[in-house]
């Protein structure tokens, strides 16, 4: 019988890949402006994913203060470019501080202010290795549709907060955010062109690979 990890084991796994001073400073900026960035465990998973895919082009929905973006940039190719979208220009200014402090060349981080569902349609079809979403939870199902268009075959879409503070697994929870994430999980799991996995890191990280489908 598989048993759930004890809190000590969960904390050990979350802290297994330690964060440095740059990420700690980014988290401090996030706290100052009321942003809730991904956990260290989720960040390490994203860096690993970017490294495995040898990612050259990544889209991020929800720049925050640069925590998740820096994790991914550190896993991407040296010439890889992160395109990050956020409605808050101040958050993106703070993210630039994070990337500069980390020694990331400015041309590797393309920060676009605006609403994701207005910006994403302007991006190039089939160009991206990863689409990572940590934006408006009620828009998650719509982000999936955009991601399927933006990803190359073999690319991966990732959603943070896929467990949404233990609410998604509880059928009694019916708030709009929980319903949207629960529906997203269902669609991803049933989608014929996706290979899904739900990782219990941080607040849940939903991953799905866009598979190669034979031509009709």
Distance between the termini: 44 Å
CATH class: Alpha Beta
Number of strands: 7
> What would CATH call the architecture?
3-Layer(aba) Sandwich
How is the biggest beta sheet arranged?
7 strands, mixed
CATH topology: Rossmann fold
Summarize the amount of helix as a percent range.
Answer: 25-40%
Rg over C-alpha atoms, rounded to the nearest angstrom: 17 Å
What is the total number of structural domains?
Answer: 1
Unreliable stretches: none
Spatial order of strands in the largest sheet: 3-2-1-4-5-7-6
Return the string of H and E elements: HHHEHEHEHEHEHEE
CATH superfamily annotation: Vaccinia Virus protein VP39
Number of helices: 8
What is the structural class? alpha/beta
Sheet-strand content, in percent, reads 15-25%
Query: Mean pLDDT, nearest integer?
Result: 96
Shape: globular
Question: Could you characterize the architecture of this molecule?
Answer:
The chain has a single domain (7-210), classed as Rossmann fold, CATH 3.40.50. It is built from 8 helices and 7 strands, in the order H-H-H-E-H-E-H-E-H-E-H-E-H-E-E. It has helices at residues 7-14, 21-33, 40-52, 67-75, 89-101, 116-119, 140-150, 176-190, and strands spanning 57-61, 81-86, 109-113, 128-133, 151-160, 194-199, 205-210. A 7-stranded mixed sheet has the order 3-2-1-4-5-7-6, sandwiched between helices. Helix 2 runs antiparallel to helix 5 (89-101) and helix 3 packs parallel to helix 4 (67-75). It is globular and about 45 Å long. This is O-methyltransferase. Pfam families: Methyltransf_3. It comes from Nocardioides marmoriginsengisoli. One of its GO terms (molecular function) is O-methyltransferase activity.
């Amino acid at each position: 019988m598989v048993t759930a990890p004890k809190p000590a084991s969960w904390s050990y796994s979350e802290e297994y890949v330690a964060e440095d001073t740059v990420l700690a400073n980014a988290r401090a900026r996030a706290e100052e402006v009321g942003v809730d960035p991904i956990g260290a465990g989720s960040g390490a998973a994203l860096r690993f994913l970017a490294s495995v895919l040898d990612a050259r082009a990544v889209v991020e929905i929800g720049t925050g203060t640069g925590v998740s973006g820096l994790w991914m940039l550190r896993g991407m190719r040296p010439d890889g470019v992160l395109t990050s979208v956020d409605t808050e220009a101040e958050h993106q200014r703070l993210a630039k501080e994070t990337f500069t402090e980390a020694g990331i060349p400015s041309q590797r981080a393309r920060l676009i202010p605006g609403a994701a569902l207005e910006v994403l349609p302007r991006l190039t079809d089939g160009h991206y290795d990863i689409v990572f979403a940590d934006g408006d939870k009620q828009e998650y199902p719509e982000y999936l549709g955009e991601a399927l268009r933006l990803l190359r075959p073999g690319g991966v879409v990732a959603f943070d907060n896929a467990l949404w503070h233990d609410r998604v697994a509880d059928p009694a929870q019916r708030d709009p955010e929980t319903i949207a994430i629960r529906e997203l999980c269902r669609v991803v799991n049933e989608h014929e062109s996706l290979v899904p996995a739900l990782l219990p890191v941080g607040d849940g990280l939903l991953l799905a690979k866009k598979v190669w489908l034979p031509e009709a």
